[in-house]
Amino acid sequence: MEEILALCIPIVFVITVGLITRWISNNRVRRELINANASPELAATLLGSPEENPDTSLKWGMVFIAIGLALFGNQMFNLNADDPIAFGLAFLFGGIALLLFYLIKSRKDA
After folding, report:
1. Has residue 48 got a pLDDT over 70?
2. Half-sphere exposure of 32 (CA within 13 A, CB side)
3. Which of 20, 33, 41, 62 has the most neighbouring CB atoms within 10 Å?
4. Is the pTM of this model over 0.70?
5. What's residue 80's pLDDT?
6. Helices marked H in 1-110 — which ranges?
């Protein structure tokens, strides 16, 4: 359990710092656009659409579920976090999830 926490804490820290940096940057850009009297279309183009893309949500949902299943499998087979197979399973399951997403997306677009 301690190995998992030792792995998760730095990952969560990096993601949190990245999200806070993006939030501050977007707020500064919005402020400058308001001061420059920019059109709403220009602001939407520069900052992206506020609506979530359902395909992105599906992709990351599949990846996180697959990695969770890999971690669950590691616990079921009593693998240590230091074993290379533990990382291999996480990457394998994540890759399979991305391939499945690609198949779902290509069939949806066709």
Report:
1. no
2. 9
3. 62
4. no
5. 81
6. 2-35, 40-47, 54-76, 84-109
